[in-house]
Amino acid sequence: MPLVVKVQKIVFSDKEGDFVSIEDFYIDGAPSLLRLWYGNIWEISAETINLTRLPNSSLSSVDNVTKDPKKIEFISGVTIQEIVVRKFILSPKLTGFLDEIAFDIRGHLNVDLENNKLNFLAKINLTNIRFIRFKFTN
Fold first, then answer.
1. How far apart are CA 10 and CA 64, in angstroms?
2. In which region does residue 10 sit, left (phi positive, over 0), alpha (psi from -120 to 50) or beta (all else)?
3. For a disulfide at 112, which of 73, 77, 84, 85, Cβ 3.0-4.6 Å?
4. Residue 93, H or E segment
5. What is the pTM of this model?
6. How much is the pLDDT for 134?
7. CA distances, 64 to each of 60, 67, 122 (Å)
8. Predicted pLDDT of residue 76
């Protein structure tokens, strides 16, 4: 049973406002026919991801997250064949540079929760870096 999702715009925010927006998000996948509770995703893509700042979170560490041993895990893993972000933008507020940093990402991901393994391979191409201009403050 394939799953295809297209979303024009996704915005994440916290108490301080928006911190990331994703435009033209697309996912195409299905449960595995060979492995029970395993997801196969052929593509996850976005035209633009704009990260303006890091989220304001009260969670200080992933060590604070507890796992209920009685809870049954339904997903044993997932494979994402192709991850594509055509333009990933880091804002000057986030980086401290005078100009935004933009790059594209292509890669794939394999998560095996049964064996606690994660494999992620990505190729990143900077698209607007000729030189980096810093701003200095006292």
1. 28
2. beta
3. 77
4. helix 92-95
5. 0.76
6. 53
7. 8, 10, 29
8. 73
Q: How far apart are alpha carbons 80 and 69 in whole angstroms?
A: 27
Write out the H or E segment, with its range, that includes residue 48. strand 38-51
Largest CA distance in the chain: 60
For 50, residues 6+ apart whose C-beta sits below 8 A from its C-beta are: 20, 21, 22, 23, 89, 91
Contact 81, 119 (CB under 8 A): no
Q: Please report where in the chains the tokens 């893509």 appear, as a residue.
A: 45
pLDDT along the chain (138 residues), means of 10: 90 94 95 68 96 81 59 71 95 87 93 85 78 53
- Two tokens, residue 79: 């494979």
Nearest 10 degrees: CA dihedral of 75, 77, 79, 80? 60
Indicate the pairing of strand 38-51 with strand 17-31: antiparallel
At 89 the pLDDT is 94
